[in-house]
Design goal:
Blueprint: H1 6-18, E1 23-26, H2 32-43, E2 47-51, E3 56-60, E4 71-74, H3 79-90, E5 96-100, H4 111-119, E6 123-126, E7 135-138, E8 145-150, H5 156-164, E9 172-177, H6 182-194, E10 201-204, E11 207-210, E12 222-224, H7 229-242, E13 244-249, H8 264-271, E14 274-277, E15 281-286, E16 296-298, H9 306-312, E17 320-323, H10 335-345, E18 349-352, E19 357-360, E20 368-370, H11 376-386, E21 398-400, H12 413-423
Parallel strand pairs: 1-12, 4-5, 8-9, 16-17, 20-21
Antiparallel strand pairs: 1-3, 2-3, 5-7, 6-7, 9-11, 10-11, 13-15, 14-15, 17-19, 18-19
Helix pairs in contact: 1-2, 1-3, 1-6, 3-5, 4-5, 5-6, 7-8, 7-11, 9-11
Length: about 425
């Protein structure tokens, strides 16, 4: 089973902090990103008890949250932590909160969520470059009303605003200017309902209304985290690289899953993988000798998976064209430029534009070290390509630099790959 979803775990932690009663999260993700949110909630006065072996996180002590003294929060390179905690602290009834991250996080965009929160009455001061971390928040709650948000650079801006809207003094109506990628916004809205909120009213594709003030509450006090569909993308692609069949427990089809990234299974099917639901999850199968095919796809709605396809594109006859990925240039690294550089290192012909990658397969160059740029998705995607028996003798031909960067979302990834290799037949 893949680890718990980062997107769901970090949202559930915020929602749990806003409930009046103790909340237990089960099947939670234990990684650098989720631990940053856990530690931030502790700094904000909550009691958070984490049991990694059992994958359980308990959140309690909500009545003691948001102390009046100054609090310093560190978000590392975690975009969800940075955006969600900024909104949470801005909506707090009191306190002064400073939020900072790594040097790379200071370059990642924050302006959309900062501007929208300011329009709702938040006192947010940028201590360096305007629209970026570090920031200082002098909290006194949000007033509600109508607001516009520019969420083109990250849908997390809009999700963060939706999550804290029920804390405002009056209902909030928000319009996303310039467009927004909806799958993660829809994930946020569905989870809000699970945590006791009335449904977010979607007045138009880019126009939302949230009731306020409204209390968060979770019936039963326990919430199960879905396995991470983004992490599942690497494993579901493995049969296409190695042949054979693999089953993943816990993953559900798109009509059931909360996560938009599960749509990557449609891409794998187009590439030649047979993917079917099972009683416990999903299975992926590819028979050696069966046809593989290059794929053309718009990844704007599930862009965290585009590197998985880019990395295995050298094995797919015919060109593969990936579109809708311009915004990924401003994530942990410039993922479009990085993917092009590593594929070129592997001997591929690559056509790169601001929003696309087109990969024309060439014979793979062996004995290559893949640069990961400190980005977990590079390490995992190209590791799957490395499972291809290029030399025909089972020997390694590709090296991943800094595999430890997988700790951000999937700390046990390479251990799991090793176990799958040892257990294969």
């Amino acid at each position: 089973m893949p680890p718990g979803s980062k997107s769901i775990t970090n949202r559930a932690l915020i929602f749990a902090a806003l409930c009046p009663q103790p909340i237990m999260l089960t099947e939670a993700l234990f990684s650098e990103d989720s631990q940053l949110v856990v530690e931030a909630l502790r700094q904000l006065g909550l009691t958070v008890e984490a049991n990694a072996p059992r994958r359980r996180i308990g959140v309690s002590g909500q009545a003691h949250a948001f102390p009046s003294e100054r609090v310093e929060l560190f978000v590392g390179l975690a975009g969800t932590a940075a955006r969600f905690l900024t909104a949470l602290c801005a909506a707090a009834p009191r306190g002064i909160y400073s939020i900072d991250g790594t040097a790379r996080m200071r370059k990642r965009p924050m302006k959309g969520v900062i501007d929208a929160l300011r329009a709702l009455g938040a006192d947010i001061r940028c201590l360096g470059a305007e629209g970026h971390l570090p920031i200082e928040i002098h909290a006194h709650g949000l007033r509600g009303g109508e607001v516009e948000i520019d969420a083109q650079e990250s849908s997390q801006f809009l999700s963060a605003l939706l999550m804290v809207a029920p804390l405002a003094a009056a209902p909030i109506t928000v319009r996303a200017v310039g467009g927004v990628r909806l799958p993660f916004v829809q994930l946020t809205a569905r989870m809000m309902v699970q945590f006791g909120q009335p449904p977010v009213q979607q007045l138009a594709p880019d126009h939302f209304r949230m009731a306020a003030p409204q209390r968060y509450e979770l019936d039963g006090g326990s919430y199960a985290i879905e396995p991470d569909a983004s992490a599942g993308s690497y494993l579901l692609a493995l049969p296409l690289v190695t042949g054979g069949e693999l089953s993943l427990a816990g993953l559900t089809p798109p009509d059931v899953s909360l996560q938009g990234d599960i749509r990557f299974i449609d891409v794998l099917r187009e590439a030649g993988v047979l993917i079917q639901p099972t009683a416990r999850g999903l299975s992926a199968r590819w028979e050696r000798g069966s046809a593989r095919r290059g794929v053309t796809g718009d990844f704007s709605k599930f862009s965290d998976t585009f590197l998985t396809l880019a990395a295995i594109a050298p094995l797919l006859p015919g060109p593969t064209k990936i579109t809708g990925i311009a915004h990924t240039r401003r994530q942990e690294t410039d993922r479009v430029a990085g993917a092009a550089a590593e594929l070129l290192r592997l001997g591929q012909h690559v056509v790169e534009t601001e929003d696309t990658l087109e990969i024309h397969p060439r014979p793979l160059t062996p004995d290559v070290q893949i640069e990961t740029y400190g980005d977990h998705r590079f390490a995992m995607s190209f590791a799957i390509l490395g499972c291809h028996d290029l030399l025909g003798n089972g020997r390694s031909w590709l090296t991943i630099k800094d595999p430890g960067c997988c700790a951000k979302t999937f700390p046990a990834f390479f251990d799991l790959l090793a176990r799958l290799h040892a257990g294969s037949h």
